[in-house]
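User: Here's a structure from my thesis project, written as C-alpha coordinates. My advisor, Dr. K., wants to see whether a designed sequence matches the one we expressed. Can you design one independently, without my sequence as a hint?
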Protein backbone atom coordinates (compact mmCIF):
# COMPACT_ATOMS: atom_id res chain seq x y z
CA UNK A 1 0.00 0.00 0.00
CA UNK A 2 1.39 3.38 -1.03
CA UNK A 3 1.50 6.14 1.52
CA UNK A 4 0.13 9.49 0.44
CA UNK A 5 1.48 12.72 1.81
CA UNK A 6 -1.27 15.18 2.75
CA UNK A 7 -1.99 18.05 0.37
CA UNK A 8 -0.94 20.64 2.96
CA UNK A 9 2.43 18.98 3.47
CA UNK A 10 2.98 18.65 -0.29
CA UNK A 11 2.43 22.40 -0.70
CA UNK A 12 4.96 23.19 2.05
CA UNK A 13 7.51 20.79 0.53
CA UNK A 14 6.99 22.39 -2.88
CA UNK A 15 7.45 25.91 -1.53
CA UNK A 16 10.64 24.84 0.25
CA UNK A 17 11.95 23.22 -2.93
CA UNK A 18 11.23 26.36 -4.95
CA UNK A 19 12.88 28.58 -2.33
CA UNK A 20 16.03 26.43 -2.25
CA UNK A 21 16.23 26.32 -6.05
CA UNK A 22 15.71 30.05 -6.48
CA UNK A 23 18.25 30.85 -3.75
CA UNK A 24 20.76 28.94 -5.86
CA UNK A 25 19.74 30.76 -9.04
CA UNK A 26 18.92 27.48 -10.77
CA UNK A 27 16.23 26.54 -13.27
CA UNK A 28 13.72 23.75 -12.71
CA UNK A 29 15.13 21.77 -15.63
CA UNK A 30 18.59 21.69 -14.02
CA UNK A 31 17.31 20.27 -10.74
CA UNK A 32 14.97 17.84 -12.49
CA UNK A 33 17.76 16.46 -14.69
CA UNK A 34 20.11 16.07 -11.74
CA UNK A 35 17.37 14.30 -9.77
CA UNK A 36 16.58 12.01 -12.71
CA UNK A 37 12.96 13.09 -13.11
CA UNK A 38 11.09 14.96 -15.82
CA UNK A 39 10.88 18.71 -15.74
CA UNK A 40 7.07 18.55 -15.75
CA UNK A 41 7.02 16.27 -12.69
CA UNK A 42 9.48 18.53 -10.88
CA UNK A 43 7.27 21.54 -11.67
CA UNK A 44 4.26 19.65 -10.26
CA UNK A 45 6.23 18.93 -7.09
CA UNK A 46 7.05 22.62 -6.63
CA UNK A 47 3.35 23.44 -7.03
CA UNK A 48 2.46 20.82 -4.42
CA UNK A 49 0.55 18.74 -6.96
CA UNK A 50 2.74 15.64 -7.21
CA UNK A 51 2.99 12.80 -4.71
CA UNK A 52 6.66 11.80 -4.81
CA UNK A 53 8.07 8.53 -3.58
CA UNK A 54 10.69 8.60 -0.87
CA UNK A 55 13.30 7.85 -3.53
CA UNK A 56 12.23 10.86 -5.60
CA UNK A 57 12.24 13.14 -2.55
CA UNK A 58 15.75 11.94 -1.69
CA UNK A 59 16.92 12.53 -5.28
CA UNK A 60 15.48 16.06 -5.36
CA UNK A 61 16.99 16.97 -1.99
CA UNK A 62 20.35 15.64 -3.16
CA UNK A 63 20.04 17.54 -6.46
CA UNK A 64 19.28 20.75 -4.55
CA UNK A 65 22.37 20.19 -2.35
CA UNK A 66 20.44 20.95 0.84
CA UNK A 67 19.64 19.13 4.06
CA UNK A 68 16.36 17.24 4.21
CA UNK A 69 15.28 19.49 7.07
CA UNK A 70 15.44 22.44 4.65
CA UNK A 71 12.74 20.81 2.52
CA UNK A 72 10.69 18.53 4.77
CA UNK A 73 8.42 20.21 7.34
CA UNK A 74 8.66 17.38 9.87
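Assistant: Designed independently from the structure alone:
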Amino acid sequence: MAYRISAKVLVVIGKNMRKARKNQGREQIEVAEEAGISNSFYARLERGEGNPTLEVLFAVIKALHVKSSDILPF
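When you compare it with your expressed construct, this may help: The helical segments are 7-23, 28-35, 39-46, 54-64, 68-71.
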